[in-house]
From TrEMBL:
<keyword id="KW-1003">Cell membrane</keyword>
<feature type="compositionally biased region" description="Polar residues">
    <location>
        <begin position="190"/>
        <end position="202"/>
    </location>
</feature>
<dbReference type="InterPro" id="IPR038072">
    <property type="entry name" value="GspK_central_sf"/>
</dbReference>
<keyword id="KW-0813">Transport</keyword>
<keyword id="KW-0997">Cell inner membrane</keyword>
<dbReference type="Pfam" id="PF21687">
    <property type="entry name" value="T2SSK_1st"/>
</dbReference>
<dbReference type="InterPro" id="IPR049031">
    <property type="entry name" value="T2SSK_SAM-like_1st"/>
</dbReference>
<dbReference type="InterPro" id="IPR005628">
    <property type="entry name" value="GspK"/>
</dbReference>
<comment type="similarity">
    <text>Belongs to the GSP K family.</text>
</comment>
<keyword id="KW-0472">Membrane</keyword>
<keyword id="KW-0812">Transmembrane</keyword>
<keyword id="KW-0653">Protein transport</keyword>
<dbReference type="InterPro" id="IPR045584">
    <property type="entry name" value="Pilin-like"/>
</dbReference>
<feature type="region of interest" description="Disordered">
    <location>
        <begin position="169"/>
        <end position="202"/>
    </location>
</feature>
<feature type="domain" description="T2SS protein K second SAM-like">
    <location>
        <begin position="245"/>
        <end position="290"/>
    </location>
</feature>
<keyword id="KW-1133">Transmembrane helix</keyword>
<dbReference type="Pfam" id="PF03934">
    <property type="entry name" value="T2SSK"/>
</dbReference>
């Protein structure tokens, strides 16, 4: 039976409509599956991120335990042959981390890290005290820049920044300024402070530097210069007049800068000497090098360390977390985490 032209046209429209509805349904279902897949992946990423944070928190606590035990056993001497200085290579965490794989599959979650002596580096906060540049520390930082084949003139700009970030103790009216570094105040080009007459102090208007990268805000410092300085300078809290450098861990460049009158060749000899036998105390150092460091005090160099940096890295499947933490260790061995940062 032959259909009429109108009926054939209606049947064609019905077929096209059915195809369109089928396509629409497939598109909706595919979109729902895609949204579900995105949600599952997002939940999986959040879980892995949380797992990595807990792993790194455990690693930092482990490092604190190592440092406490070291303080209990080593009697105020820290050197690179101690357990805390051993680098942790990539360690698989198959038995400790559930990362969503089947039981028959291997996990690729790994942990690596290292404890680094923060006082093997020069503390930039030494450059000024109470907003006044210390000429002796300025000379030491200038020597460090010269040892790294950088312009020593950059030291003044960094010192100005450090001084401007510190509160200044104002001298009462009519009283002479007896500060040893009072002459340096006139040399500082930074004047962006305001006076608080109630407590006789100056309230700063700048954030204090907390990491080496803050030097990028100083004129003359480039990313290449900061990267070169990263292994030789730190920004540490000031617990004493100055933060001493550890003789047993500092590189030759820092030793030659910290100890006045010591050349790079002399510093290399000191490093070679401590590699054979670490310095037990300052008397041991002066006995080995009687003609060096005559003007250096225990405020400049020491054989023990108060600040450490813990670097940790966790790899899990396709993700990575890399963090650093600054740990302060007290004389009784108690440890405190001062900050944790993502690298």
């Amino acid at each position: 039976m032959r259909l009429s032209r109108p009926m054939r046209r209606q049947r064609g429209v019905a077929v096209v409509t059915a195809l369109l509805l089928t396509t629409l349904a497939i598109t909706i279902v595919a979109s729902l599956f895609w949204q579900q897949q995105v949600q599952v992946r997002s939940i999986e990423n959040q879980r892995m991120q949380l797992q990595k944070k807990w792993i790194l928190r455990g690693a930092i606590d482990w490092a604190r335990l190592i440092l406490r035990e070291d303080a209990r056993q080593s009697a105020k001497v820290d050197y690179l042959g101690e357990p805390w200085a051993v680098k942790l290579a990539d360690t698989r965490l198959d038995q400790y981390v559930e990362n969503g794989r089947a039981e028959t599959e291997e996990s690729d979650a790994t942990l690596s890290g290292q404890i680094v002596d923060a006082q093997a580096s020069y503390n930039l906060n030494n450059l000024a005290t109470n907003g006044v540049i210390d000429p002796r520390e300025l000379a030491a930082f200038s020597r460090l820049l010269a040892n790294l084949r950088l312009s020593p003139d950059l030291a003044q700009a960094a010192a100005d920044m450090i001084a401007a970030s510190q509160p200044q103790i104002k001298t009462p009216a009519g009283a002479p300024d007896s500060s040893p570094a009072s002459a340096a105040r006139a040399g500082s080009s930074v004047e962006n402070t305001k006076t608080d007459s109630a407590n006789n102090r100056t309230e700063v208007q700048f954030l204090r530097p907390v990491q080496v990268e803050d030097l990028l805000a100083v004129s003359g410092y480039t990313p290449e210069i900061v990267e070169k300085l990263r292994s030789y300078v730190m920004v540490l809290p000031r617990k004493t007049a100055t933060t001493a450098v550890n003789l047993n861990t500092a590189p030759a460049e820092v030793l030659a800068a910290r100890i006045e009158g010591v050349s790079m060749a002399d510093a290399a000899l000191m490093v070679a000497s401590r590699d054979r036998a670490y310095f037990r105390d300052l008397a041991d150092f002066h006995q080995r090098f009687p003609d060096k460091g005559k003007t250096t005090t225990d405020k400049d160099i020491q054989v023990w360390t108060q600040f450490f940096v813990v670097n940790g890295k966790v790899k899990m499947n396709r993700s990575l977390m890399d963090v650093s933490a600054l740990i302060e260790r007290a004389d009784d061995g108690a440890t405190t985490v001062l900050w944790v940062r993502d690298n």
